Write a sequence for this structure.
């Protein structure tokens, strides 16, 4: 039964309510979710709203008696159908806009809110958009039954206002060079409506190609290229259209805004400086201290750089700026700059300005200017003082020391400050090596003080050369010879002479000892320290030499040999008469006859005096008293002086005692016994005993003679060892040349010079020297051993051979020398890396379509080394497949496909490596910058490949629906792209040739066409051939919500009844809603979304027919509520609801049920008739409790064959 039916059957509704209320009176009703605020007894029937707060809505400007809409049922479930519920607004409606009404259906009393009629005021959302009403419910006649709820009514917006611009006039100035798609302004309009009602579109009143306005944001952007020469001002008129009005068919425009666009050649960008500083040397001519690059992003004169000036840091104006090329400037200094006054450089402040109007100035930039000054502070000598020791016997050309400054510049040059001491030395100005120029053996100076100066830096250092004594002086006697007369009779140990020598050498080299150089024993000795000569034994003039020539040797204590000198000391013996004469014969016996003639010689006496100072005299001491005999005193002849006739010697024998004297000394007497015989005269015969004096004298004389021969023998011997006879000689195996590797380390041995000298001592000691040819001081020779070693590094590339003059000296006096030439060939070592001929790298420009295999450049390097060390192999170190290099000649060629757009510049690193077979190979690298010159080989590339745009169907004409964007990496005209449409769907769209903006030229209609597939072309302006690309733009038309009207039911609620035994699928009723929209917005779809009947009932979504989907059971549930929705198919669907009450009608489908399944009563036997045994109780779910007793009949169906029992058919007793 529908609402109207319910109203017509108003009289029957209370009765039906009583019938439905009876089961509730027997059972306690279930609790409800609403708020129970009743004031009655707590155990009474429940009375309360289903919710404490309800939400409803109503449109502003609604007419009188317009009901609000709510998604839920507002009201109270009736615990008793007899309740007469009344609703009343108690608060929240001060203006009296609303009224609360009751509507009873089934077991529910609906609360319906509506606007009052006859009220002049209408709802206005813009004033108040929400009302919270307090509604009281009460039961008529039951003062204790009342409850309250709140109803929040949302006032929904209606599109009753239009957008308004604020402000209405805009003005903007833009630069002529403004890029496409740049936002230049934004217009603003407001609409007080909300939601879609507050939405509006911006668009130009007239067609405009150079500008575009965003339809919703109002941002105006540039869509074409400006040209101030053609037009410098644009007056744009912008309109705003309310979308709601358009939907409702009203195209009235709310307001208009004007936008004035002024175009100027604006000097927009200030110049930007980039500075690269240099550090030139103070020796450079016209040095550049910094390069300034200036960029200005403006075009035309605005982008041209006028100048770069020094605005600070140069009060003396010592610097100036010189223009190199456009945009590049060099900072230079005048020749008057004294860099000594700028030890830490100076800071110049620069500023650039362009030629624009007005001029723009760059930000100031501080540049630190430095120059590589003379190394006055940083460079120092390696030592503060060079203290060198040098042997005194060092030959000329001996290396003394190498002085260096550190760090040492390549052009360092050293000199010796002229002085008296520097005359003995020379300086290699390039190597800093000091060497000797003179012998030092004849000098007494011990220390030489030199000063070395490096010319460029003017640094000075002291060099002290200490001359080490080398025992180069021989002891020198104070006399060239000594001579002395010594009495032969002096006592043993008598000092006869003192010799003295001096040695100017130092230390032990000058300490002298004396010795007597003699191979024969001498009667003298010498004190080795004092030089006193004394006798060691008695001297004898007669038995030794009359004089002694003694060689006295003075020796120093030097090493490795002692220096010696000799002097002749002549000692003359003074003869003293210290020997008695000695007879040669003694004890002579002889016989003479008595008639021996007088005067005849009897015998001769012979005495010898060794002294030989005086003649010996003879004398008869006794036995010649009678004078018979005569003894010649001088000759010693004994003769007969008187005849013997008368002689009568005693015992017939004359015994003569004879002596000899030298005048001082007398010999021992000798006796001569002479017998006189009678008779015939016997022959004269004498026998004497030989004393061998003559022999002894002869021996002495011989000895003396030998003594006189000794000095000659010893002279020859001494001469053999003291005279420098031999000249030093080079070894016979001495080569004419040797080879040395140039990378030998300093100190390494090169060659040992062997030489010999047949002399001994210092005469045979050899000194080695490089007297000439050691141009770069690369070699040094050990003065004593002759070992040639590396003194300074060699460089074959500078000098590949040295012709050394090797001179050897002995230390004899006079000194002897010899020399030989030795050619030293410097063998190459791999000490030089290959060097590219072009410093700073290579740069070339080639077309990007250069064919594979084309030679593009030759990089060439040289290596100063020889052989494999100097052979070069080229390779490309950079990882690239586009370029290769000929490893032999360095020709770089194209090895792969080039594409400037993919890689515009290749920075290749090229290596030149030698082919050294020993040691490590050396290499150097350079850079090759290959710049690819553009060729129009790339068609414009759309980004993305396919465009997809969505356009609301109500967009105004002129709206940009898509921006085409392409990338053409070609340069110049080849990169300038123009756009066109291949199909525009009967001029529905157009594209800006320059910016690629696709605009609407006609209004869209979703219902007519939902999709457009535009074919667009992008073509560059390359020459001679332009390239083309094609893509598609998929424009999807988006349906705008034109669903203006919501569906509506003609009834607020419906009621229907159905038998509980109705089959599944039984139709209950058909609901029908209406929608004033057309098309799919007016197509309605039905659904059941709420209610207690969910799952029991269903509705056909197209027809609205409600049918059962499950079996019903009145005894389980006797009624159902269904909330039926009617929704349209709009973009934003709208809906309406209707409540359907389903009453389930009873069918006798249940058997009565006893209270117990089995009864076990008992009765005594012999009980009388009509005794009550038990009362059977039963119920029938089909019947109501009050009618159950009247509708049940009881009877016994079995077990009573004798009929002992009977049952009351009505009561069951």
């Amino acid at each position: 039964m529908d609402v109207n039916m319910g109203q017509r059957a108003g009289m029957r509704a209370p009765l039906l309510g009583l019938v439905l209320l009876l089961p509730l009176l027997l059972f306690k009703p279930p609790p409800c979710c609403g708020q129970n605020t009743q004031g009655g007894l707590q155990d009474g029937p429940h009375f309360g709203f289903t919710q404490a707060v309800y939400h409803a809505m109503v449109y502003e400007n609604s007419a009188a008696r317009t009901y609000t809409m709510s998604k839920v049922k507002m009201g109270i479930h009736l615990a008793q159908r007899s309740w007469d519920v009344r609703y009343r607004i108690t608060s929240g409606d001060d203006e009296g806009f609303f009224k609360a009404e009751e509507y009873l259906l089934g077991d529910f009393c609906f609360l319906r809110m509506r606007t009052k009629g006859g009220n002049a005021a209408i709802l206005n959302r813009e004033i108040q958009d929400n009302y919270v009403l307090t509604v009281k419910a009460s039961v008529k006649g039951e003062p204790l039954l009342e409850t309250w709820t709140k109803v929040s009514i949302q006032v929904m917006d209606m599109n009753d206002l239009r957008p308004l611009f604020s402000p209405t006039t805009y003005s903007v100035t833009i630069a002529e060079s403004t890029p496409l798609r740049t936002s230049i302004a934004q217009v603003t309009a407001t609409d007080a409506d909300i939601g879609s009602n507050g939405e509006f579109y911006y668009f130009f009143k007239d067609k405009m190609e150079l500008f575009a306005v965003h339809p919703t944001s109002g941002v105006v952007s540039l869509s074409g290229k400006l040209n101030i020469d053609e037009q410098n001002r644009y007056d744009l008129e912008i309109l705003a259209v309310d979308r709601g009005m358009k939907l409702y068919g009203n195209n009235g425009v709310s307001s208009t805004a004007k936008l004035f666009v002024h175009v100027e050649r604006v000097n927009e960008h200030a110049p930007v400086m980039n500075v690269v500083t240099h550090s030139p040397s103070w020796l450079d001519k016209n040095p550049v201290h910094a390069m300034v690059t200036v960029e200005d992003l403006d075009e035309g004169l605005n982008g041209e750089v006028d100048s770069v000036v020094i605005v600070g840091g140069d009060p003396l104006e010592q610097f100036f700026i010189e223009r190199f090329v456009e945009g590049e400037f060099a900072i230079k200094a005048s020749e008057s700059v004294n860099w000594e006054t700028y030890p830490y450089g100076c800071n110049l402040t620069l500023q650039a300005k362009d030629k624009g109007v007005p001029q723009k100035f760059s930000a100031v930039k501080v540049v630190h200017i430095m120059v590589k000054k003379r190394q006055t502070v940083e460079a120092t000598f390696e030592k503060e003082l060079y203290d060198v020791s040098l042997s005194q016997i060092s030959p000329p050309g001996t290396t003394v020391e190498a002085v260096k400054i550190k760090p040492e510049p390549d052009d360092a040059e050293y000199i010796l400050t002229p002085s008296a001491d520097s005359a003995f030395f020379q300086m290699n100005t390039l190597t800093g090596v000091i060497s000797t120029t003179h012998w030092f053996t004849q000098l007494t100076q011990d220390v030489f003080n030199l000063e070395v100066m490096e010319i460029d830096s003017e640094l000075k250092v002291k060099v002290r050369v200490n001359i080490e004594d080398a025992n180069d002086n021989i002891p020198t006697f104070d006399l060239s010879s000594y001579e002395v007369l010594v009495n032969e009779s002096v006592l043993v140990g008598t000092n006869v002479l003192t010799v003295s020598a001096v040695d100017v050498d130092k230390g032990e080299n000058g300490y002298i000892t004396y010795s007597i150089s003699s191979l024969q024993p001498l009667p003298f000795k010498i004190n080795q320290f004092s030089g006193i000569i004394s006798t060691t034994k008695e001297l004898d003039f007669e038995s030794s030499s009359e004089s002694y020539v003694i060689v006295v040797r003075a020796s120093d204590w030097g090493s490795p040999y002692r220096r010696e000198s000799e002097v002749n000391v002549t000692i003359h013996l003074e003869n003293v008469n210290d020997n008695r004469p000695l007879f040669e014969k003694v004890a002579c016996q002889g016989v003479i006859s008595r008639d021996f003639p007088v005067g005849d010689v009897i015998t001769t006496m012979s005495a010898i005096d060794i002294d030989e100072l005086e003649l010996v005299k003879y004398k008869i001491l006794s036995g010649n008293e009678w004078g018979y005999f005569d003894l010649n005193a001088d000759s010693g002849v004994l003769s007969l002086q008187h005849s013997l006739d008368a002689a009568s010697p005693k015992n017939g024998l004359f015994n003569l005692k004879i002596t000899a004297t030298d005048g001082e000394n007398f010999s021992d007497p000798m006796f001569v016994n002479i017998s006189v015989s009678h008779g015939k005269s016997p022959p004269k015969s004498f026998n004497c005993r030989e004393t061998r004096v003559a022999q002894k004298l002869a021996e002495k004389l011989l000895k003396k003679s030998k003594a006189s021969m000794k000095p000659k023998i010893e002279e020859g011997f001494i001469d053999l060892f003291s005279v420098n006879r031999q000249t030093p000689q080079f070894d016979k195996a001495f080569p004419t040349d040797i080879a040395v590797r140039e990378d030998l380390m300093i100190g390494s041995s090169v060659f040992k010079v062997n030489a010999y000298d047949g002399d001994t001592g210092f005469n045979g000691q050899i000194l080695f020297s490089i007297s000439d040819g050691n141009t770069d001081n690369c070699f040094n020779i050990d003065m004593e051993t002759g070992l040639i070693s590396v003194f300074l590094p060699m460089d074959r590339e500078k000098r590949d051979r040295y012709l050394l003059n090797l001179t050897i000296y002995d230390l004899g006096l006079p000194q002897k020398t010899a020399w030989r030439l030795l050619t030293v060939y410097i063998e190459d070592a791999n000490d030089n890396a290959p060097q590219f001929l072009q410093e700073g790298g290579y740069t070339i420009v080639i077309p990007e379509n250069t064919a594979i295999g084309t030679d593009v450049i030759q990089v060439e390097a040289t290596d100063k080394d020889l052989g494999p060390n100097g052979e070069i192999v080229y390779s490309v170190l950079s990882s690239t497949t586009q370029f290769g290099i000929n490893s032999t000649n360095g020709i770089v060629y194209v090895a792969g496909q080039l594409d400037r757009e993919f890689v515009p510049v290749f920075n290749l690193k090229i290596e030149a490596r030698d082919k050294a077979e020993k040691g490590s190979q050396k290499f150097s690298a350079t850079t090759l910058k290959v710049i690819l010159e553009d060729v129009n080989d790339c068609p414009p590339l759309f980004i993305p490949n396919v465009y997809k745009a969505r356009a609301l169907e109500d967009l105004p004409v002129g709206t940009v629906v898509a921006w085409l964007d392409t990338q053409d990496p070609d340069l110049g005209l080849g990169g300038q792209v123009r756009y066109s449409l291949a199909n525009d769907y009967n001029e529905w769209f157009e594209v800006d040739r320059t910016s690629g903006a696709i605009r609407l030229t006609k209004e869209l209609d979703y219902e007519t066409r939902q999709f457009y597939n535009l074919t667009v072309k992008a073509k560059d302006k390359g020459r001679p051939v332009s390239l083309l690309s094609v893509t598609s733009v998929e424009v999807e038309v988006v349906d705008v919500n034109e669903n203006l009207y919501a569906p509506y039911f003609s009834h607020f609620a419906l009621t229907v009844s159905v038998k509980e035994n109705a089959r599944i699928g039984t139709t209950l009723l058909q609901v029908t809603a209406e929608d004033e929209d057309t098309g799919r917005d007016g197509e309605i779809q039905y659904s059941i979304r709420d209610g207690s009947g969910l799952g029991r009932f269903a509705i056909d979504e197209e027809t609205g027919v409600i049918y059962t989907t499950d079996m019903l059971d009145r005894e389980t549930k006797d009624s159902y509520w269904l909330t039926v929705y009617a929704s349209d198919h709009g973009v934003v669907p709208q809906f309406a609801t209707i409540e359907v009450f389903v009453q389930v009608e009873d069918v006798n489908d249940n058997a009565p049920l006893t209270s117990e399944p089995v009864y076990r009563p008992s009765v005594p036997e012999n009980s009388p008739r009509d005794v009550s045994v038990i009362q059977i109780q039963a119920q029938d779910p089909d019947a109501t409790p009050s009618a159950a007793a009247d509708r049940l009949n009881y009877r016994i169906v079995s077990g009573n064959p004798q009929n002992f029992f009977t049952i009351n058919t009505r009561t069951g007793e």
Summary: Confidence is low (pLDDT under 50) at residues 1-42, 712-719.
